[in-house]
Here is the input.
Amino acid sequence: MSWSEIRNRLAELLPSAEHWARYLVAAVHIMAILVGAFLIYQVLSRVLFRAFASRTRLLTDGRRATIGPLTSSVLKYIIGAVALVMILHELGINYTAILAGAGVVGLAFGLGAQTLIRDFFAGFFLLFEDLIEVGDFIEVGDKSGTVEQIGLRVTQFRSFNGALHTIPNGELGRFANYNRDFCRAIVDVDISYRHDAREVIARADAVAQAWAAENPEQVLEPPQVLASCSSAPRACQSK
Here is the structure.
């Protein structure tokens, strides 16, 4: 095979200048789509951050910490999906058929993942009804801790011993939230039989009243000292 034949063969295999120009234009368009999607995400994220920051009277710190990251995540997925469709269009791929096939696959997946869908709906209503937010101290069954993250599928809270618990939102049917309206602090003080119960009660009341006077913003009503005689009958007899 001569050099001219080799050159002609390579010319047939390699794309023509017109094709190279088309590929270059498509690459430029794809790069512009990616850069545009990134800039749009950054701008909208800052706008949402400022919007949440300016609503200090309407949203608590925990509420902003809950909705802010979740909204940013949803925004990222939406912009990414739109950018992907535009890139497929630039590549000449029939994305409508892909979307139709994805719909069928999504339907089959939904029928087989009803628990996952239940978790998503439960998470949506948890956030919509403001039942829980980041920073709340909750109790789920025999576990309790401070909420660190709330997503549409799972909620994470950390116990006092440092353990991080991950609970699917669909299982949060019953839980106690200690950060709603008010909370009653109960402090048990055990005394021995040889101490005078009246003196201990007086000292405990004095300490409680002093703490309430130093922290008026945390107290809704004056503290009370309640005596129980069930475990110390002799001490109670000295009243």
User: Anything to note?
Assistant: The mean pLDDT is 76.
